[in-house]
Amino acid sequence: MRKQIACLRNSFFDEGFLDEQFLQLEDLQDDANPNFVEEIVTSFYGDSVRLLRNLEMALEKRPFDFCKLENYMHLFKGSSSSIGAIKVKRECTRFQDYCKAGNAEGCINSYQQVKQEHAILRRKLETYFKLARQAA
Amino acid sequence: MTSAKRQSALVVDDDPVTRIITRGLLNYFGFEVSTLNDGIEVVNMYEAGKGHFDLIITDMEMPVMNGIEATKKLRSLGVGCKIIGVSSCDDETSRRHFMEAGLDHLFYKPLNVTKLQSCLENN
Residue ranges of the HPt domain (chain A) (predicted)? Predict the structure, then answer.
């Protein structure tokens, strides 16, 4: 099982899901804070529900308030980069670029990509932490 | 045997994830950490005479009072502790204004452990 956990963890970096920011968070985890990383990730996903809801509500309104959309995505991007979620962050940047260009269709399509990357990483991290807890 | 008193730090950020991470970082470096959600809260705290921190780490962009205004206000109240700003904003003008408000250091988000450690060690 430890091998499975190690493989899964390595895949986060090999496949570009997470960057060195995640490694820094892991370095802060110790016996005094054994679940530090999981706590942060859980908080991220909890908060991202709210942020994504704000984005979806803003995307339902016509015409788009590109400034508001960009600001909402700025918050989401900040949270994502805090845990090292580099693919999510990249899609957030793409969305912001579409906002700056006033490209509504681009925003809609890009938002779907943000959600997809967010969901993929969430599934991977949930599996990882579940296995880590079982192995502990 | 008495233990050395831990230094106190205040993290001011409207992003809960950043607050948890920064708190964890500062705990790691031995600080006793409190958190607030907005610049207005830290200013209110100090105006009420309840702010006594060795270190403040504040975000730049916050909904009610941003970090620039909060830092200016804290310095005008005579707050002399180290104040570190953090921001994901690339705009150089805004970053310069943030420094000029009275920061000791300004870092890009996400906070880098090594850079923060170096900053805290060089008083």
Answer: 33-136
Beta strands per DSSP E along B3-122: 8-12, 32-36, 55-59, 82-87, 105-108
Number of domains in chain A: 1
Digits of tens for pLDDT over chain B (123 positions)?
Answer: 445 678 999 999 998 888 988 998 898 889 999 999 999 999 999 999 999 999 999 999 998 999 999 999 999 999 999 999 999 887 899 999 999 999 999 999 888 888 888 888 875
Domain that holds residue A80: 2-27+38-135
Tracing tokens 């994502």 back to the chain, one arrives at A80
Residue of A nearest to B86 (CA): A78
Nearest to A100 by CA among A52, A67, A131: A67
pTM of the model: 0.83
Looking up tokens 């206000």 gives B73
Phi, psi dihedral angles at A61 (to 5 degrees) = -85, 145
Q: Which tokens sit at B85?
A: 């700003």
Q: Is the distance from CB of B101 to CB of B72 less than 8 angstroms? A: yes
- Find chain A residues with C-beta within 8 A of B17's C-beta: 40, 43-44, 47, 79, 82-83
CATH value at residue A85: 1.20.120.160
Residues 6+ apart with CB under 8 A from B123: B82
CB contact under 8 A, B112 and A47: no
- The answer as to whether A33 is a domain residue is no
Taking the CA atoms of B37, B38, B40 and B46 in sequence, report the sign of the dihedral they define.
Answer: positive
Laid out side by side, the sheet with B82-87 consists of: B32-36, B8-12, B55-59, B82-87, B105-108
